[in-house]
Amino acid sequence: MTKKWARVLLTSLLTAALFTGCSSAPAESKPEEGTQTEAGTNETNGEKVKVSLLVTGSFGDKAFNDSAQTGMKQVAEQLSDKVEVEMIEMGNDKTKFEGSLLDASESDSDIIIVGTWDMKEILEQTAPLFPDKKYIIFDTDVDYAASDLSNVYSMSYKQNEAAFLAGVLAASTTTSDMTYANEEATIGFVGAKDTAAVINDSAVGFIQGAQFINPDIKVLVSYVGSYVDSAKAKELALTQYASGADCVFVAAGPASVGVIEAAAESKKYVIGVDSDQALAYEGSEEAEFIISSAIKGVGTTIFSSIERDLEGNLPYGTYELLGLAENAVGLADNSIYQSVVSEEIRTTVEDAKASLLAGEVSVDTAYGMDEATLKGIISSAQ
């Protein structure tokens, strides 16, 4: 199939999908698109596997993209004898995602990695056009029944498990003798969009983790309505801190920086998301208030996926859901966590983690949960 006809066919398929009710999020502006950077200095010799990572948005988000970049750098450093890597920022203009994926598919890349629901539909339409290419998509699944996606491996994360541990930490922190804790058993959650199952999954896990420690704890819940509106996220967090919360868990992508700013201004605690956000603020005033982060191991799982591919063990054509048992999610354990959070609280978190791994405690998920049940969980904690 020629490049021209591949593009024509893909455009037709995506247009048809649009008119049959496929959802699309509003476009949000970000830095200019198309910036390309490479990790590593591997020379192509015709035998190495070329792996290309395409990210929506840009690097420097202190979250998903930075984690993915770290994973690719690890690939470049530790698998340099077998792999050549490339990383491409696509920006936030969603109209350009299709073209970027087609360009990568038509290039000499062997494995192409994309992430999140923004790329789900585009990948579903593109992958069958390039059966000789391999694709990996993280933080979402694809519809394997809709077409031949035998060359696609999809994975997502049990963020509800990491959020459960964040809830245990927050509930143990509030009313403790930690410097910025108060006497009220009140904590907060600031999420991106209330329509996103991935965000609500974190909300459900966080609330259940907090109630695991204190059934009567109050959890303030707010939604930004965006992944990039850091000003709105900050406003919501400031309101929660002013309302008695002394520890807020944020799950709002790049907008999370607003909550971190609010924590520093209010001199209260915050738990970050996706990557170890305290490291991104190392040396700054904000860092001392970020007591941990609920991590999704995007970089870790990208690296392990490439390792598995090289070994011939990556199950293309299937979807995997990865959690604590696979070391794909968890809480950041850094010097701030060790120095600011007491040993007693850290032990409580470890005990909760052990209970989850042993199957003694289970966490509900927002995926497949009806709206009434979700609202009931949230309202019961207010």
UniProtKB/TrEMBL annotation:
The ABC transporter substrate-binding protein PnrA-like domain sits at 48-346
Q: Where in the cell is it found?
A: Cell membrane
Query: How does the entry describe its membrane topology?
Result: Lipid-anchor
Judging by the UniProt lineage, the source's domain of life is Bacteria
Q: Which SUPFAM superfamilies match?
A: Periplasmic binding protein-like I (SSF53822)
Segment Disordered: which positions? 24-46
Q: Which UniProt keywords apply?
A: Cell membrane, Lipoprotein, Membrane, Signal
Q: Where would you say this protein principally sits, based on its record? A: membrane
Q: Where is the signal peptide?
A: 1-27
**Which CDD domains does this UniProt record tie to the protein?**
PBP1_BMP-like
Pfam families from the xrefs?
A: Bmp
**Can you list the GO cellular component terms from the UniProt entry?**
plasma membrane
Name the protein family.
Answer: Belongs to the BMP lipoprotein family.
What protein name does the entry list?
Basic membrane lipoprotein
Q: Which organism is it from?
A: Cellulosilyticum lentocellum (strain ATCC 49066 / DSM 5427 / NCIMB 11756 / RHM5)
